[in-house]
Design goal:
By secondary structure, this protein is mainly beta. Helices cover about 10% and strands about 45% of the residues. Strand 1 and strand 2 form a beta hairpin.
Length: about 100
Amino acid sequence: MNAEAQTEAKTHGFKRRLIGRVSSDKMDKTVVVDVMRYKMHPMYKKYIRVRRRFKAHDNTNQYKTGDRVEIIEHRPLSAQKRWKVIRLVERPVTA
């Protein structure tokens, strides 16, 4: 293989990145992330909140409920996990 073909083989294309809030950390190495988006209603032309829930891989069990995290698409890790947590965006303030 030439150098150009090797670089093409290493790239994996575009992977979606989303930011959401951890709603559950009760599973081992898995967190449930709520991603809130705003979508315009087709008839009333008002923006409504749309929530999607993704199960994401957390290998070190370091993310807790309430944390804002960034997740990225990943190969299937289990029957429902297709996302992986890549970084902590914000941790809630505790008194």
